[in-house]
Design brief:
The protein has three domains: 380 residues, no CATH class; 95 residues, Tetratricopeptide repeat domain (Serine Threonine Protein Phosphatase 5, Tetratricopeptide repeat); 47 residues, no CATH class. 73% of the residues lie in helices and 0% in strands. It contains 28 helices and no strands. Helix 22 packs parallel to helix 24 and helix 27 packs antiparallel against helix 28.
Length: 547
C-alpha cells in the first residue's frame, strides 16, 4: 500500500510537469523580468562586490527587496546563460518540490493520506498557481513558500520531540524566506497557529519564537519603506479614502476566493476599481460576504475550520490596502499558499461524495482535475511573451493601465502603430495619465514627424504634471520643430531648472540657439551637455565649437 501511494505522488508530479510543459517554450516577460534581474548590473557576474550589491537594501528594482531570489537568478545565468528555459525549469522544479512539501505537511498534521493527497493535487494543478510558476519574476513566491512549508514541517517534528537544531533550522528558513520575499513575515504566525491547532499553546513555545516575530517585523518595515520610496513601476491606484481601503481590504478574501472556486477568465493583471465617487457595488458585496463567512466560521466553533480561515486571511493580509502601497488589489500569485484550506475543504467534499456514491465521486474527481489541468495548461500559454500576457489583459479588462502596458510592449518590439493605438486608448480611458500623454508626444514627433500632434500631447502632459522636466522638455522640443523658438527656449530652461543635469535639454537648447545665430551661448550649452557625458553633444561640440 505504501509503495502504491508513492506511485500516486510520482504520477501527480509527472502530470503537473506535463500540464506546465508549455512554459519550456515561454520567453522572458519585459514586465518585471528585465527590471528585476536581466537589466540589473549586479546580476551579470558573480563577484563578492556583486553579491554584496544584491543584498544591499538600496538595490531594489521596482521597490522589491528579494536578494535571495536574485542571487539564485545570478547563479542560473552564470551556469546556463541568458536563455529563459533554465529559469522556467527552475520555477517548475520548485513548484514540484512544493507539492511534495504540501503533502508532507498535511499528512504529518492530519495523519490522513487521501485528503492530504487530493489537497496536494489541487495545489499542483489549480490555474491560480500558474502565475507563480509561469512568470519568472514570481519565482520569489515559490521560494518563500518552500521556506514556509519546510519551517512548518520541521516545527511539527519539534513539537513532538524538541531539538535545538530544529529550532535553529526554522530560524534559518524564516530568514531565508524573508530574503526571498517579505511575504514570509507570516511564517512565525503560521507556527503560532500550529501551536493552537495542536493544542500545544504555552508561554515557553510563545517566547521560543518571539525573535522570529521581531525579525519578521523589521523585515516588514524594511519592505514597506522600500516599496513606498520606490517610484518605479507605479500602479494606477485612485485616491481612496481610509474608509475605502477598509472596504477593499474586507473585500479581498472573497474576491480571491471567487478565483479559486471559479477559475475561468483568470487575468494577468487586475486593475483597481474606479471610484465615482463610490466604489463599485461588488466591492461592498464582497466585503459584507467576507464578514458573514468569517462570522459563520467563528460561530461554528470548529477548530480546524477556524484555523483554515485564519491561515487564509493572514496569507492575504500583507496585500490588504490599509497601508497604501503599489501592490495590485488582486493577483493570482497571492493565492499560491493561501488557498490550501479551500483545497482541503474541496478534498473533504470529494471524499464525502465517495462514501455516498463511489462511482459518481470518481467521475466528478476525473472531470474536476481534467478541467483544472486543461485550464492551467491554457493559462500557461498566455505567459508566452509580453504580447500574449497583455493581450489577454486587454481582452478581459479594457482598462487604462492594461492598454498602457500593452502599448509599452509594442514599443519594445517595434510595432509602433499598435503602440500608438493602445496609448491613445489609455488616455481616452484615463485622461489624467501624464506619462502616456508624454509617450504619445514622443511617438508623434520622433517617429512620425507630426510635431503639431506631438505639441498637443506634450502640452496636455504638462497641464497635468508641471513638476516633470520631461513634460517641459517635450513641449519645448515640439515648439522648436514648429519654429516657436522663444517658447521652446523658455521651456528648455524650465526643464533645466527642475533637473540641472538634464543633458538632452542642454543639447536641444544648444541646437536651437545655433539656429537663431547665438553661437557662443549654443557652445556653452553644448559644453554642459558634453560634460554630462552626452555623446551627441561631444561630437557636435568638436565640429561646431572648436573651429
Amino acid at each position: 500500500m505504501k509503495n502504491k501511494r508513492q506511485y500516486l505522488l510520482i504520477a501527480l508530479l509527472a502530470l503537473t510537469a506535463l500540464v506546465y510543459w508549455p512554459l519550456t517554450s515561454n520567453r522572458f516577460i519585459y514586465w518585471d523580468d528585465y527590471f528585476q534581474f536581466l537589466g540589473n548590473p549586479a546580476f551579470h557576474q558573480i563577484t563578492w562586490a556583486g553579491l554584496l550589491a544584491i543584498f544591499r537594501p538600496d538595490n531594489n528594482p521596482l521597490g522589491m527587496y528579494q536578494p535571495l531570489a536574485t542571487a539564485i537568478f545570478t547563479a542560473t545565468y552564470q551556469l546556463f546563460g541568458p536563455s529563459p528555459l533554465p529559469f522556467h525549469l527552475l520555477s517548475l522544479l520548485f513548484h514540484l518540490l512544493n507539492i511534495l512539501l504540501v503533502f508532507w505537511l498535511l499528512n504529518k498534521l492530519s495523519r490522513r493520506f487521501w485528503p492530504s493527497f487530493i489537497t496536494s493535487a489541487f495545489f499542483a494543478l489549480h490555474p491560480v498557481q500558474v502565475e507563480s510558476v509561469a512568470w519568472i519574476s514570481a519565482f520569489s513566491n515559490l521560494l518563500w513558500s518552500s521556506a514556509a512549508l519546510s519551517a512548518m514541517i520541521i516545527y511539527l517534528y519539534h513539537l513532538k520531540q524538541p531539538k535545538k537544531w530544529q529550532l535553529a533550522l526554522i530560524y534559518l528558513l524564516t530568514i531565508g524566506g524573508l530574503l526571498a520575499k517579505f511575504a514570509a513575515a507570516v511564517i512565525p504566525v503560521y507556527l503560532y497557529l500550529l501551536d493552537w491547532l495542536k493544542g500545544r499553546w504555552s508561554s515557553r513555545l510563545f517566547w521560543q519564537k518571539i525573535f522570529l516575530l521581531i525579525i519578521a517585523f523589521f523585515f516588514g518595515l524594511l519592505a514597506v519603506t522600500i516599496r513606498q520610496s520606490s517610484h518605479g513601476h507605479p500602479l494606477d491606484m485612485p485616491a481612496y479614502t481610509f474608509v475605502d481601503t477598509l472596504w477593499l481590504s474586507a473585500a479581498a478574501p472573497v474576491l480571491h476566493l471567487s478565483k479559486v472556486v471559479w477559475p475561468v477568465g483568470l487575468n494577468n493583471f487586475y486593475p483597481y476599481p474606479a471610484k465615482t465617487p463610490y466604489l463599485p457595488w461588488w466591492i461592498y458585496a464582497s466585503a459584507i460576504t467576507t464578514i458573514i463567512l468569517l462570522s459563520a466560521i467563528l460561530l461554528s466553533k470548529r477548530k480546524s475550520l477556524i484555523a483554515g480561515a485564519v491561515f487564509y486571511i493572514i496569507s492575504l493580509a500583507l496585500i490588504f490596502k490599509i497601508v497604501p502601497s503599489s501592490t495590485p488589489i488582486m493577483a493570482d500569485r497571492y493565492l499560491y499558499l493561501a488557498a490550501l484550506p479551500v483545497y482541503w475543504l474541496a478534498a473533504e467534499g470529494l471524499l464525502a461524495l465517495h462514501r455516498w456514491r463511489k462511482y459518481a465521486a470518481i467521475t466528478v474527481t476525473v472531470i474536476v482535475f481534467g478541467v483544472l489541468g486543461y485550464l492551467s495548461y491554457a493559462q500557461t500559454k498566455t505567459w508566452f511573451n509580453d504580447y500574449t500576457v497583455w493581450q489577454r489583459v486587454v481582452d478581459l479588462t479594457d482598462s487604462a493601465r492594461s492598454h498602457a502596458l500593452v502599448g509599452k510592449t509594442y514599443m519594445i518590439v517595434g510595432d509602433y502603430t499598435q503602440a500608438l493605438y493602445h496609448y491613445q486608448r489609455t488616455v481616452a480611458l484615463n485622461p489624467g495619465d501624464s506619462v502616456t500623454w508624454n509617450n504619445i508626444a514622443v511617438m508623434e514627433g520622433d517617429l512620425y514627424g507630426r510635431w503639431q500632434q506631438s505639441l498637443a500631447a506634450s502640452q496636455k502632459a504638462l497641464s497635468i504634471d508641471a513638476e516633470s522636466q520631461f513634460n517641459w522638455y517635450r513641449t519645448g522640443l515640439a515648439e522648436a520643430k514648429l519654429g516657436q523658438n522663444q517658447k521652446a527656449l523658455n521651456h528648455f530652461n524650465q526643464a533645466i531648472v527642475i533637473e540641472p543635469d538634464f543633458a538632452e535639454a542642454y543639447y536641444e537648447k544648444a541646437l536651437l540657439l545655433e539656429k537663431i545665430k547665438k553661437h557662443k551661448e549654443a557652445c556653452r550649452n553644448l559644453a554642459k551637455a558634453r560634460d554630462l557625458d552626452y555623446n551627441e553633444a561631444k561630437k557636435l561640440y568638436t565640429t561646431l565649437c572648436r573651429q
